[in-house]
Design goal:
CATH class: Alpha Beta
CATH superfamily: YqgF/RNase H-like domain
Structural class: alpha/beta
CATH architecture: 2-Layer Sandwich
Distance between the termini: 17 Å
Number of strands: 5
Helix content: 40-55%
Radius of gyration: 13 Å
Strand content: 25-35%
Length: 129
């Protein structure tokens, strides 16, 4: 049976989400809007349960000590019992913005965040292959 993967790109206002069920085909999903970290972690847990995810790939910032602490803390709030792995998210948001130039005008709806999550998951699956 194929493993089901999801990735999240954790931001201060939104959490981008993506899933993959078949090798390297990754689909961005609706981003989770953060009101507070407890609500956001419950919403991520519900997302993972809904899609029956086996492995969660978490985008990991390479440069910001503050965001590294925030990501590590957020992951401890999750009740997800599957495998959790970290993948460097370096420049994924910028890459998502570049990919969608002219297509997505409003970045506050979370689409850019979920495309960044898609890029993070694609990087992980490519590295793993």
């Amino acid at each position: 049976m194929q493993k089901k993967y999801a990735s999240i790109d954790i931001g201060l206002k939104r959490i981008g989400c993506a899933v993959s069920f078949m090798s390297h085909i990754v689909n961005p999903k609706e981003a989770i809007i953060r009101k507070n970290r407890n609500q956001a972690s419950r919403d991520v847990d519900a997302f993972l349960k809904e899609w029956e995810i086996d492995t969660l790939v978490v985008g990991y910032p390479a440069s910001s000590e503050d965001m590294i602490k925030r990501v590590n803390h957020f992951v401890t709030l999750l009740e997800f019992e599957g495998e959790i792995v970290f993948q460097n998210e370096n420049m994924s948001s910028q890459e998502a913005k570049d990919m969608t130039k002219g297509e997505i005008k409003h970045t506050r709806d979370g689409r850019i965040d979920s495309i960044a999550a898609k890029i993070i998951l694609e990087r992980y699956l490519t590295k793993k292959a």
